[in-house]
Amino acid sequence: MLWLEKVWSKHPGGLLKKPSLLVCNQFKAHVTDSTKRPATKLKTHLTVIPGGLTSQLQPLDISVNKPFKGFMHKEWAKWIEAPTHHVTPAGRVKRASISNVCEWVKNSWQRVKSETIAKSLKKCGISNALDGSEDDILLEVTHRVKTTMKMILVAVTKIFWVSMMNKLYYGC
Question: What's the CA gap between 131 and 152, in Å, rounded?
C-alpha cells in the first residue's frame, strides 16, 4: 500500500523500522495482503477494530475529531468574515485556496491539546506504560468492550434460539 511506504514509514521510529502499532477499521483495503506485506516489512503490527466498536476503540472518534472540527470551523469563519475575498462574476465568494485550507488544518491541529490525544488513547486502552502504571485504566476499557460484546452475543443467541424454535414449531 502506497500510504504505508510514503507516509507511515516516515513516522518517528519508522525509518529505523522500530516495532509499531497501526489501528485500522474493517475497510477491506486495510486487511489485504497488499497492505499486510509492507506493514510487516516496516515492523508494523496491524490491529483491526471489530465492526460496531469504532466509537469505543478509535482514539480520533472518542476525543479528537470534535475539537479539531470545531477549530476548523472557527478558522473558516474568520476567513469568510474577512473583507478581502475574490468573487465570481455572479458576486459569490470564491472558494478558499488549498493553501488557506492547509493553514486552517495546521492551526487547528496545533490547537488540539496533547493531553486530549493522550486521554483518547487511554480511553481506547492504548498505552505506552510498560511498567503497569496505567493498567487500571486499560482494564476499565477492556471491561466496557467486553460488556458490549456480551450484549451483542446475548442478542445473537436470542435471535438464534427464536429462529430454532420457529423451525421446530412452525417448520419455517
Answer: 33
Q: How many helices (H) and strands (E) does the chain have?
A: 8, 2
CA distance linking residue 66 with residue 76, whole number of Å? 15
More confident residue, 132 or 48: 48
CA distance 142 to 148: 10
What is the rounded CA–CA span in Å between residue 160 and residue 152? 12
At 89, the amino acid letter reads P
Read off the pLDDT of residues 19-61 as tens digits, 9 standing for 90 and up.
888 888 888 888 888 888 988 888 888 888 887 777 777 788 8
What is the model's pTM?
0.58
Tell me how crowded residue 62 is: count the other CB atoms within 10 A of its CB: 19
Provide the β-strand partners of residue 24.
48
